[in-house]
Design goal:
2 strands; elongated; 67% helix; mainly alpha
């Protein structure tokens, strides 16, 4: 019997911290058109010095281009990874929120899951999310079962 096929992770960075930075940079650029160290630090609730150190490392790794006092730009590789991370975050958030979980629980759970999910599992969860969003009766039925099992 052949060994089980290793699941391919959705990104190959191996660092949740780098993924968090790429996600923040991607989101800032999408929202404001630019990403600055001060904004990244504020969103991640860490010091600007820590952000600068990580951004310089990411620059050396070819994920971003950083110019002091000018901001951060994603390279093509960084942009692709950032988009993939944002998509993963969105799928997990929509799926969990669709079941009526409170926003804080959804946020905490997504932050914990998003760095450890395989591409194959993300595809399954995306399919489930799309089917549930397109079938309100099924979603209501499942929510009812959850409520019943939780004693609500």
């Amino acid at each position: 019997m052949p060994p089980p096929k290793r699941q391919e992770l959705t990104t190959h960075l191996g660092s949740p911290a780098v993924e968090d930075y790429l996600e923040q940079i991607h989101n800032l650029i999408a929202q404001k058109g630019y990403a600055r160290v001060v904004d990244i630090a504020g969103n991640l609730k860490i010091s600007q010095a820590s952000v600068t150190n990580m951004i310089q490392r990411m620059d050396a790794d070819g994920l971003v281009v950083y110019e002091r006092y000018r901001g951060v730009v994603l390279t093509e590789t960084g942009r692709k990874v950032g988009e993939e991370i944002a998509r993963r975050h969105e799928v997990l958030t929509r799926l969990l929120a669709g079941f009526g979980l409170d926003a804080e629980t959804v946020h905490q759970d997504v932050e914990g899951m998003e760095h450890h999910i395989s591409r194959q599992t993300l595809e399954v969860l995306t399919l489930l999310m799309e089917e549930l969003e397109g079938n309100p009766k099924l979603l209501a039925k499942l929510k009812g079962r959850l409520d019943a099992s939780n004693g609500a």
